[in-house]
Design goal:
The chain is α/β, with parallel strands linked by helices and about 350 residues long. The protein has helices at about 10-15, 20-25, 25-30, 40-60, 70-75, 85-90, 105-115, 135-145, 160-165, 175-180, 190-200, 220-230, 245, 255-265, 275-285, 305-315, 325-340, and strands spanning about 60-65, 80, 95-100, 120, 150-155, 165-170, 185-190, 205-210, 235, 250, 270-275, 290. The chain has a four-stranded parallel sheet, with helices on both faces. Strands 6-5-7-8 form a four-stranded parallel sheet, sandwiched between helices. Strands 10-9-11-12 form a four-stranded parallel sheet, with helices on both faces. The protein is flat.
């Protein structure tokens, strides 16, 4: 049955203001009040309401990455998390329809691990600078130059690159996956800064690619020091940042590890040296902590909006498809990652 052929109530197809909405969403409004400009809330609310009602009609599950803006992350998402959490959730999700609010490689991973389900991405142009920095041909050329050396690819890669890899990894489990290869040398790609961070934690020799994240590469050690000295803030950095930034940090970790650190430490002030929306979303969870910028917005994550999430649910756009042969190879690499998991506390 094609759920998108089923007509929906007019108010779901054309979101409009209803006077009862502020009362109906009072709890959400209180949670988002410190995260959004006050003028934005009335504009978002009809879309949030229509999406939440429409996903019930369609039997859909909305998944959102931690870098999604607060009105999406808190307002309409059923499941949230980092790349690994969303990949695992896709394979377990009971819904046959998934709307992936993130970038394209994440939607591909969901489709690969749940091939029988329909996976929609609200904007197919939501890409990733890391994913675009390397191709499957590049991986084949690396293998030819380093015969017999296993390849570990960060999940921020296309399905075609994953299919040419022996295993995938996230920033949370990269060290464990590298060491699980059982080799003295490993090709690690595409993020060179993450690779350098991993190399400092293992005796395995890493052959690195030259990719880097356009969000995290822009941070500087001077920004980090300013946040510490001006605001007396603790510094928490993502391992995709340059090494001189990581050297200034009190803690370096993945998106999920950052939240775990905040839970344990409860600092009065913290600078999250990562994507801005993640700091916004964590601010709701840790109201006693003051979040100090610097941060940078991911232009690709910002392509996902309430309006195109609504269009995805209304019209069934844009379905993600992965060729069967590519999906088989990428699934093997992802499953090898999931079998390794992540270190305790990572």
């Amino acid at each position: 049955m094609n759920v998108f052929a089923t007509p929906v109530a007019p108010e779901l197809a054309r979101p409009r203001w209803r006077d009862e909405l502020p009362t109906q969403y009072a709890e959400l409004g209180q949670r988002l009040e410190p995260l959004l400009p006050c003028l934005e809330w009335p504009l978002h609310l009809p879309w949030i309401d229509a999406i939440n009602r429409l996903k019930v009609e369609r039997g859909a599950t909305i998944m959102a990455h931690s870098y999604q803006s607060p009105e999406i992350f808190h307002g309409v998402a059923d499941l949230t998390g980092d790349s690994l959490a969303l990949a695992q959730a896709a394979s377990r999700c009971e819904s046959n329809l998934i709307v992936l609010c993130g970038v394209h490689f994440m939607a591909e991973s969901a489709k690969i691990l749940a091939p029988e389900k329909t996976v929609l991405i609200p904007d197919p142009e939501a890409g990733c600078s890391l994913a675009s920095s390397i191709t499957a041909d590049d991986v084949r050329a690396l293998r030819a130059r380093h015969p017999g050396v296993p390849v570990v690819s960060y999940v921020n890669t296309s399905a075609a690159v994953k299919a040419q890899s022996d295993a995938c990894c996230t920033s949370a489990n990269a060290v464990d996956v590298v060491e699980a290869m059982g080799a003295d040398r490993v090709i690690f790609l595409p993020d060179r800064f993450l690779g350098q961070h991993v190399a400092r934690q293992t005796r395995v020799e890493l052959i690195l690619w030259h990719g880097q994240c356009e969000v995290h590469e822009k941070f500087t050690a001077a920004q980090a020091r300013h946040a510490r000295e001006r605001f007396d803030a603790r510094l928490v950095a993502h391992p995709e940042c340059p090494p001189e930034v990581l050297a200034e940090a009190d803690f370096v970790g993945s998106t999920s590890a950052m939240a775990g650190w905040l839970e344990r430490e409860q600092p009065p002030r913290v600078a999250l040296i990562t994507e801005c929306s993640m700091a916004d979303n964590l601010r709701a969870r840790f109201p006693a902590t003051q979040f100090i910028k610097p941060c940078n917005l991911c232009p690709h994550m910002q392509k996902i909006t309430l309006q195109n999430i609504h269009a995805a649910l209304l019209h069934g756009r844009h379905a993600v498809e992965v060729p069967a042969d590519v999906a088989a190879g990428a699934r093997r690499a992802l499953q090898r990652m999931l079998a390794v998991g992540r270190r305790p506390g990572a």
